[in-house]
Write a structure and sequence with these properties.
Layout lengths: L5 H21 L1 H9 L4 H8 L6 H22 L5 H8 L1 H15 L11 H32 L2 H6 L6 H4 L1 H32 L4 E6 L4 H12 L5 E3 L7 H9 L8 E5 L7 H8 L4 E4 L7 H4 L2 H14 L3 E5 L13 E4 L2 E7 L2 E8 L2 E7 L4 H16 L4 H9 L9 E5 L2 E6 L5 H11 L6 E5 L9 H12 L4 E5 L4 H10 L7 E4 L2 H11 L5 E5 L8
Parallel strand pairs: 1-3, 1-4, 2-3, 4-5, 5-6, 11-15, 12-13, 12-15, 13-14
Antiparallel strand pairs: 7-8, 8-9, 10-11
Length: 533
């Protein structure tokens, strides 16, 4: 059939190419979700199956609207002949794909896709998969027209192509499986190269893990150690095998004395794997809370996963005092950090006494919140153990700058903006709200709720809602988590006239314009990743 008519073959190629472009663009955010899940198909299907997830419903609406419009247009142009009426009916797909993409561009809060080489390879692979599938579908439909010679079938045949928007998620997973043919060996080789490079280097290795505070602690410790050593650390939130490998392979380790690796986990065994790649001489555990329960399932699994760093550490593991009890029975050398006392926090920063080596030093940092004093303390104790003196540690603490999106204070037009966009844990959320209440003027919170809490998601978001009660205004953003937050808010006696629910961050900013004035403070708590919108 492919060669019965070269015009039909060309027509099928053009249809396949056009559909592949539109379908790939439509699937772009889904690819970003998959990337956020570490390219794990099972997690993508789990996300798609959430009862509050509207992604598949949107794809279904696109398919239905396209099919109906295509049928109507094709029938209206029936006078042109069945085949050409079907071709003209394809205009419906063009119209609705464009409308869909335009609507989607304004819906998301944060585009989670990062255009890495792997993402680009997956996108190209997806395009080819769509192109091949649509080509064969169009060819079979034309073959059916040739065999049956039925005018109605000929006119409406391309309406059947509406099945492809319905199949975006499984086809994305198929493309992802295909890419594993080359991605798996590429990744394995890349990580092995970094592991060998670290093993052959004399650099002192430090691992940092915890349910929260990892990136902040990494930055604090790097600042303290930099007073004595040349320090390399993983950038941003690079805390996976590939994230560590990218940092190590991109640098000459002979130029550094210390390498600090942030270590993240979503399953038991993840930290142990990272410790095999980068065996830490020293390590830190910043805190434990029910974060990532969607993958961990229980707090016991969280503790077990984070505790793997103790067994993997050659010298000492420094553990935040409020979570030391979780690990007191773990084998390995560990220290409970309690070197901070007399903490005082206000809207200008945090002041505390640092006690190390029998000496004390009063320290003032611009970082906000009493919790930051504790975070600084665990880093100070580690730095002191590694040979940095108290005076240098205190100076580093006083020079600390805000970590981006982690209770970062931004002052704009007389308004105090607290950017806590990367905060999505229950402990950090409470700490951020405590900081908000330190400011004068109206106190406003903007949040989509907390994520990755598994079976605790509803209860913890309701608890967050209770914490929001009493603020001057609350703006809830998104479609999935805000109901539980609002329920908790009303149960705690929150004023319904002081709360708004909007679909996007852009809409939240429109509401803010009407309620905010000079001297007010607004907290952006957890700018929602697209995988939860």
């Amino acid at each position: 059939m492919f060669f019965i008519n070269w015009q039909i073959t060309l027509e099928c190629v053009l249809i396949a190419s056009a559909f592949a472009c539109f379908l790939s663009l439509t699937a772009f955010k889904t690819l970003g979700i998959l990337q956020g899940f570490g390219y794990k198909n099972a997690k993508l299907f789990g996300w798609a199956g959430r009862k509050s997830n509207l992604t598949q419903a949107r794809f279904s609406l696109l398919a239905l609207a396209s099919a109906l419009a295509s049928a109507v247009i094709s029938l209206c142009f029936g006078f042109a002949g069945g085949h050409w009426a079907a071709v003209i009916g394809l205009a419906a797909y063009l119209i609705f794909f464009v409308l869909y993409l335009a609507a989607e561009s304004g819906r998301s809060i944060k585009n989670s896709a990062t255009l890495t080489p792997r993402f680009k390879r997956l996108f190209i692979t997806l395009w080819f998969v769509f192109a091949v599938l649509v080509y064969f579908a169009a060819t079979l439909l034309n073959f059916g027209e040739h065999v049956w010679n039925a005018n109605l079938f000929s006119t409406l045949k391309y309406c059947i192509l509406s099945i492809f928007p319905l199949s975006i998620i499984p086809i994305v997973c198929l493309a992802n499986l295909i890419t594993l043919i080359w991605e798996a060996p590429i990744n394995k080789s890349y990580v092995k190269k970094a592991k060998n490079k670290l093993a052959q280097s004399n650099v002192i290795k430090v691992g940092i893990t915890g349910s929260y505070g990892k990136t902040s602690a990494k930055n604090v410790l790097a600042a303290m150690l930099s007073k004595k050593y040349k320090v390399l650390s993983t950038p941003s939130s690079f805390n996976t095998p590939l994230g560590i490998a990218k940092t190590v392979n991109g640098k000459n380790l002979n130029e550094y004395d210390v390498f600090i690796a942030e270590m993240g986990a979503r399953h038991r065994g993840d930290i142990a794997e990272l410790c095999q790649i980068c065996p830490p001489d020293y390590s830190l555990i910043t805190g434990i809370c029910p974060q990532h329960l969607e993958s961990f399932k229980t707090i016991e699994n969280v503790v077990a996963a984070k505790g793997e760093i103790i067994a993997g550490t050659k010298n000492v593991c420094f553990i935040a005092g409020d979570c030391f009890g979780y690990f007191k029975d773990e084998s390995g050398q560990k220290v409970e950090c309690d070197c901070v006392s007399d903490v005082k926090a206000d809207c200008t920063g945090t002041e505390f006494t640092l006690n190390l080596g029998g000496e004390s030093k009063r320290v003032k940092t611009k970082l906000l919140g009493a919790h930051n004093a504790c975070n600084i303390g665990i880093c100070a104790q580690a730095a002191f153990e590694m040979g940095v003196d108290l005076q240098a540690i205190a100076l580093a603490a006083e020079e600390l700058e805000f970590t981006e999106h982690r209770l970062q204070l931004i002052q704009s037009n007389g308004v105090n903006i607290l950017d806590d966009g990367y905060n999505s844990n229950v402990v950090g959320a409470k700490a951020a709200l405590n900081v908000l209440r330190l400011f004068g003027g109206k106190k406003i919170a903007v949040t989509p709720g907390l994520v990755e809490l598994g079976i605790l998601e509803e209860s913890e978001n309701a608890a967050l809602g209770k914490e929001l009660a009493g603020l001057d205004y609350v703006i809830l953003v998104g479609e999935t988590l805000v109901t539980a937050v609002k329920n908790g808010y009303t149960q705690a006696g929150g004023d319904l006239e002081k709360i708004s629910v909007v679909p996007t961050l852009a809409a939240a900013q429109d509401v803010l314009k009407n309620v905010i004035e000079k001297g007010d403070a607004v907290l952006f708590l957890n700018d929602l990743p697209e995988i939860y919108n």
